[in-house]
Amino acid sequence: ERQLVESGGGLVEAGGSLRLSCTGSGFTFVHYSIGWFRQAPGKEREKVSCISNSEGLTYYADSVKGRFTTATDNAKNTVYLQMNDLKPEDTAVYYCAAAAGMTTVQAMPVMGPPQFGMDFWGKGTLVTVSS
Predict the structure, then answer these.
(1) Most CB atoms within 10 A, among 3, 49, 66, 123?
(2) Where residue 102 falls among pLDDT bands split at 50, 70, 90?
């Protein structure tokens, strides 16, 4: 069974940092792209970042460029999302999701909800940024 598990969420003050992890199992991790998405209360899910595990291609939403960085550790079947200079508007449940190949990363600028072209999803981890 293909599975993604997020971890690392929590409560942080504005200006602080958190690192989220997304660990996969049940599939060939290196052949997939992993995306991060978030959903704030009462709002639609939005894309945050995406990385192709084999090529290292990346995509970032404009709202997080320069503050968030995603990286892959294929030996650990894990993708990280390093979040710096956090703002209250970053408060959301953060989900990771997987899609086969690298084309999803290249197409992410035009991908929309609900699935953003991803094949399967984790259950999410809550990030709360206090002002």
Answers:
(1) 49
(2) confident
